[in-house]
Amino acid sequence: xxxxxxxxxxxxxxxxxxxxYKYLSEQKRETVMSKQLLRSGxxxxxxxxxxxxxxxDSDFIHKLAIAQKEVNETAYWLSLLxxxxxxxxxxxxxxxxxxxxxxxxxxxxxxxxxENIRQKKKCHSHYAGNSTQLLQSLFIHCTKHKKMVKxxxxxxxxxxxxxxxxxxxxx
Length: 171
Description:
Shape: elongated
Largest sheet: none
Number of helices: 7
């Protein structure tokens, strides 16, 4: 069962990196750059896996940012291996294409997550004040809990919080 598309792609990419490392070390007798390539290229998937099990949104973004740095490092080693004739242009282009795909996917996920966090903060900035008001803001958007919010408001005589357009569209 697939965890996510980026997880599957990064795992498949890691397998390609391991196979490339074997080829470079056994056939081309290159061990220094290929070992660096092995470390950075397999680290991408490991960090994606950690991100998928992150403890918070910021942890998720942080782990993916590390994966993105590893993608950039891997691209560097691939380029160096091609420029020093350890990889043919065709071998380099094949790996580089997959590297660019992973780079774009990870960057897109990070940007989307940051935008979602920004929208969430913007939406919830309508609610300032005490914890009862915050409690109301969490429940007023749910049809199932409107009665509960009404009871809280009647008991404490608290004015209902403003409802932002974002939450109205998600009823």
